[in-house]
Design brief:
The structure is a homodimer of 399-residue chains.
Chain A lengths: L3 E11 L7 H7 L4 E6 L3 H4 L2 H11 L3 E5 L8 H14 L3 E6 L1 H14 L7 H6 L12 E5 L13 E4 L4 E4 L9 E4 L9 H19 L7 H23 L4 H13 L14 H13 L3 H16 L4 H10 L10 H18 L16 H8 L15 H13 L4
Parallel strand pairs in A: 1-8, 2-3, 2-4, 4-5, 5-8
Antiparallel strand pairs in A: 6-7
Chain lengths: 399, 399
């Protein structure tokens, strides 16, 4: 295990009908005049908006609305939010949504506290290792699981003018609270449940596939959490309104990304990096892109650390251990993972997702742009490696 | 799963030689004038005291010492500490030790912030559900693992005048940071490693044995963490100076008790309650008492929830699953747990620990004193049940 520091101060409020208590948690943070941030109209259709607003009104909490957050949330809306915070003397921000809404709220929070003369984009997002100010505070009502931003220190924003998508990761970014009612998932389309399950599992796999030795305790915890997603993802996919399935999956999604599971481990994240280009170029859902890129990455790198892939196969995917032929066990684990993605209707190859193969060189180039020299923690991947992995993903299913 | 709220803001600083950074973490909490709380002379013998003091001096942090904390930490020392804090205008408390030292520091911290006219013992410890003030702040350098107080909200103090031992559990009690270097365990006597392993495992088992259904994700995480203790307890017991064993065990001890693993579950704690009387009456180590009481409790209650005991046997203790005879599998798990305790030289019966049987009625009475109507979450236990469990513990090993 490597030395580590871990701190996650977010109050997790989890269970049936907890959204009705959201005003109590805002009051505990001394919020009296709230900016309510959300995306499109879905929270108005499924009743979440009404529950939140009724809780705020019941507690006499003033609020101003900022809606219209889109996937890959934009800097312009963040700047609009900062303007409202200053003009209306907002003292707390409530994000009602998934990762994009939460990240927008985080950026508005620290952007509002930025001292005069500093620019949120140039001085924070475009500077590696920058420290955002503490911010006025963010609370979350989670409506779409998987991104994990509700209990994480990360905030990713896209600058639509420059085309860059950049993150600020810092302890000051943890939300004050995350209110999570698994019932909000009842209305998610099955495909979104599948993509969310793939994303959660990936957040765990990116931490699991490590070159760090002596990590048994986090390995064991990760394996348990991964098996939970393996079991409950397909169940929730087929039975969207069963609370018992939704609660397991939703808690897994939050725990997957607060980084307790990653403590003391070098992490990988190459599949995420390669997927980001895939979804940037072809507008494919992030979880679907991960279902394509992760098995391809595995097929390319497993020989680097066969014991770890055997452990994954046996302890997570339920493969039968063969000491005499460990490679066979490792490959069986990868095949089972592909079958699991397919069982929820996810693509596992370029052709499944109707993605052409002519941009592979360009995407590979983009993966390593912005001062990156290599991708991946388990095995360092350079341009040619990344091209080969995209080609494996392109060829998958054709054999 | 039941609805739950979980918040644990303690900064976990874990790894080799991290004690040398303790001053940085005090400064981050704005501590400038520190009360250094510790127990006897062991931290002077093993060099931890020197490391802490050298870090404080290097950073120009003033400190006043309060030593002499004993197991079952006493109210009188807490009151002495509060006096020093007020007299010396102390602004932060550093606990260097195990559970007793940390709990003493927590009580001094909130006791110092108590408004005039309120009595720390009568108004906080003796009142169920009392809310301690925020306190001046506590940091921890952990020297003895297992109690888990370094990342918990609990604080247990004994009033040597009245004979009562009582706790105040509140979110305000979480330490600001816990600095944990597994190397501090190198000098622990093997018996203390064994007792610590039993205590950690018990903190997990008290959460694992629940009547709550649909708790797969916390079950799976708990099982992984328990297997880690099962593996590394005996290894560290036999090889005290191997870092790789100490780190797994020490992290397990901290995670066992910050209550993430207990989220959404009714917990049991009957074995702990019964053990407290055993160690109060016979001055036996807490971990040793748990090794006696836990198997006895299991033998008495397992029929209440055979599937859960089968799951424990198979997923934690490595028993072979027998669907046709689940009771046999459940009992095999209990037998394996007893064998595990014995493998580290721990007693699993009254006679192993040379405890007489004449106080069983009295101890059982004490368990349910102080307004308690029953013990245990998996199965409610009343006086006669508790007497029978003590008798099972008394008879164990004689068959």
């Amino acid at each position: 295990m490597n030395n580590f520091v871990w701190k996650c101060p977010t109050r997790l409020v989890f269970g049936k009908d907890v959204i009705e208590t959201v005003a109590d948690h805002i009051k505990a943070e001394k919020g009296t005049n709230v900016l309510l941030v959300y995306g499109g109209g879905s929270i108005k259709k499924n009743g979440i908006y009404d529950k939140v607003v009724s809780s705020l009104k019941g507690a006499g909490i003033r609020y101003t609305e900022l809606s219209g957050v889109q996937p890959n949330p934009r800097l312009s809306l963040v700047l609009e939010g900062i303007g409202i915070v200053k003009r209306e003397k907002i003292d707390f921000i409530l994000a009602v949504g998934g990762g994009s809404v939460i990240d927008t709220a985080k950026a508005i929070s620290f952007g509002s506290a930025l001292e005069d003369g500093r620019d949120i984009w140039e001085d924070l997002f475009m500077k590696a290792g920058s420290v955002p100010p503490k911010g006025i505070g963010v609370g979350v009502v989670l409506t779409i699981p998987a991104a994990g931003s509700e209990m994480s220190n990360s905030c990713v924003i896209s600058n639509e003018k420059t085309g860059y998508k950049r993150g600020v990761n810092h302890e000051n970014n943890y939300p004050a609270f995350a209110v999570i009612d698994p019932q909000v998932c009842y209305s998610l389309p099955p495909y979104q449940t599948a993509c969310g399950s793939a994303d959660m599992l990936s957040h765990m796999m990116e931490r699991y596939f490590t070159p760090t030795s002596n990590v048994d305790i986090t390995d064991a915890i990760l394996e348990g959490a991964m098996r939970t997603v393996i079991t409950y993802g397909p169940l929730a996919y087929r039975n969207p309104k069963v609370y018992e399935y939704r609660e397991q999956l939703m808690l897994a999604g939050t725990l997957a990304h607060n980084n307790l599971f990653g403590c003391g481990r070098v992490q990988d994240w190459a599949s995420h990096w390669m997927e980001h280009e895939l979804s940037a170029f072809y507008d494919i859902a992030h979880g679907a892109g991960l279902a394509i890129m992760t098995p391809a990455w595995m097929k390319y790198v497993y020989k680097e650390n066969i014991p770890r892939f055997v452990q994954f196969a046996v302890n997570v995917m339920g493969s039968r251990m063969s000491i005499a032929d460990q490679e066979k066990t490792a490959l069986d684990g990868i095949a089972r993972l592909e079958a699991w993605f397919k069982s929820m209707g996810l693509p596992t190859s370029f052709s499944d997702a109707k993605i052409p193969t002519d941009k592979i060189e360009t995407m590979a180039k983009h993966v390593l742009e912005g001062g990156r020299t290599a991708a991946g923690g388990l095995r360092k991947l350079y341009h040619d490696d990344i091209v080969r992995i995209y080609k494996i993903a392109a060829e998958a299913g054709k054999e």
